[in-house]
């Protein structure tokens, strides 16, 4: 058990969430391959809403389910008290993506392009407004009026990049052969697809329109080069500012996606400096706009991937993204995972109150520094409810051998091995 806690500290994952990581790569790979094979070229109309419909449907489903727990005060915490460029890490299954999609719905203006001109809808008459009625944030009238649907939001999900198996510097690279670039194109295409009707805005130049069309259709311009991967978010940001004339907020989910292949991938096909160069330049271009608001969400601290030695991490100043592990701040931690009271509330809604003791024994395990608060993995609580405790095997922690085998490639990196190995075996002896 002590070893499990050690790995939770190293990788930022809770004990109950390890199994999610074990299955995670296969699930993401299947999802990404489906998207890559699908014939999903966008079809556009001049009355296309900018609100991402799939994100709306996902949040709507959560909002109207018996499992809904009101975490909307996170918006106030983030926009009022936190840095402009803020990176929050929490374990898989602790609701990061749900928070991101909730934020997109709350902040993103509802608009359409009519005859080449932007037209904004009455935000008090939108379906999203109805979803937020009755929530905690709805009662904060001044904050709600100031921020609700008052921005253009860019939502970027980097998760497909975690499937990368090939990423090396090639002298004659077409940027379409290695799966790293293919997955990156998929990310860009999805990001752009939330705003297809920008093509019809009269303020775009012919060059801007053609560039945007290529991003929509192929996830990349024809004359591909590394800078276009790095600059994709900044390009869309400028197009939104120009057409919608709204402040742009960027939300980046799975910001640490490239850490995963870097840790457990085949190092003969993956060059960490090459992967690192992409995230460094991607981040630098976002940081050039110091006034922009960017929320980064992930599981693992990315600074080592930015080619820093552990001894230099504390002195990092070049990339001024403020990182906050969720479990180091009780005021922040309550927005992730589920407290015991929240689990009790959900179980009650499903007439399973008597299961609280069992759920507590199986799933409670992530502590918050300097607090008595402990948090449950949301994904596993909901899985328990869905299967009505059909099997407790699904929640059994893997053995020490299984953990070491799963992360065996990490230990081949001398920089990491020298630090981690003594800790692992020292605790084992205890």
From TrEMBL:
<dbReference type="InterPro" id="IPR027417">
    <property type="entry name" value="P-loop_NTPase"/>
</dbReference>
<feature type="signal peptide">
    <location>
        <begin position="1"/>
        <end position="22"/>
    </location>
</feature>
<dbReference type="InterPro" id="IPR018631">
    <property type="entry name" value="AAA-ATPase-like_dom"/>
</dbReference>
<feature type="domain" description="AAA+ ATPase">
    <location>
        <begin position="82"/>
        <end position="347"/>
    </location>
</feature>
<dbReference type="InterPro" id="IPR003593">
    <property type="entry name" value="AAA+_ATPase"/>
</dbReference>
<protein>
    <recommendedName>
        <fullName>AAA+ ATPase domain-containing protein</fullName>
    </recommendedName>
</protein>
<dbReference type="Pfam" id="PF09820">
    <property type="entry name" value="AAA-ATPase_like"/>
</dbReference>
<keyword id="KW-0732">Signal</keyword>
């Amino acid at each position: 058990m002590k070893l499990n806690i050690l790995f939770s500290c190293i990788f930022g994952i809770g004990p109950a969430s390890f199994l999610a990581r074990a299955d995670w790569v296969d699930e993401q790979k299947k999802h990404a391959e489906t998207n890559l094979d699908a014939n999903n070229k966008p079809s556009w109309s001049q009355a296309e809403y900018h609100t991402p419909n799939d994100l709306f449907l996902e949040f709507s489903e959560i909002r109207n389910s018996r499992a809904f727990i009101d975490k909307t005060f996170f918006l106030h915490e983030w926009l009022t008290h936190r840095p402009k460029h803020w990176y929050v890490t929490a374990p898989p299954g602790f609701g990061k993506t749900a928070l991101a999609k909730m934020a997109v719905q709350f902040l993103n203006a509802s608009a359409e392009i009519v005859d080449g001109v932007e037209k904004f809808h009455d935000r008090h008459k939108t379906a999203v407004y109805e979803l937020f009625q009755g929530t905690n944030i709805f009662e904060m009238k001044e904050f709600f009026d100031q921020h609700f649907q008052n921005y253009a939001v860019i939502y970027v999900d980097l998760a497909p990049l975690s499937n990368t198996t090939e990423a090396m510097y090639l002298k004659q690279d077409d940027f379409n052969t290695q799966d790293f670039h293919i997955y990156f194109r998929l990310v860009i295409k999805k990001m752009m697809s939330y705003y297809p009707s920008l093509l019809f805005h009269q303020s775009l130049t012919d060059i801007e329109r053609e560039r945007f069309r290529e991003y929509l259709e192929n996830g990349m311009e024809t004359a591909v080069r590394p800078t276009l991967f790095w600059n994709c978010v900044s390009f869309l940001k400028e197009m939104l500012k120009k057409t919608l004339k709204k402040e742009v907020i960027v939300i980046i989910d799975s910001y640490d996606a490239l850490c995963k292949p870097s840790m457990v991938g085949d190092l003969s096909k993956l060059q960490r400096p090459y992967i690192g160069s992409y995230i460094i330049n991607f981040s630098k271009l976002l940081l050039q706009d110091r006034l922009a608001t960017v929320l980064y969400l992930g599981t693992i601290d990315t600074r080592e991937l930015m080619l820093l030695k552990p001894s230099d991490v504390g002195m990092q100043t070049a990339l001024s993204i403020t990182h906050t592990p969720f479990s180091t701040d009780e005021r922040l931690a309550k927005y992730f995972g589920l407290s015991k009271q929240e689990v009790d509330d959900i179980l009650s809604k499903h007439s399973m109150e008597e299961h609280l003791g069992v759920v507590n024994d199986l799933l409670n395990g992530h502590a918050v520094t300097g607090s008595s608060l402990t948090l449950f993995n949301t994904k596993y609580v909901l899985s328990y409810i869905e299967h009505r405790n059909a099997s407790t095997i699904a929640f059994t922690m893997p053995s020490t051998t299984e953990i070491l085998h799963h992360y065996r490639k990490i230990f081949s990196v001398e920089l990491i091995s020298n630090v981690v190995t003594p800790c692992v075996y020292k605790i084992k002896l205890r």
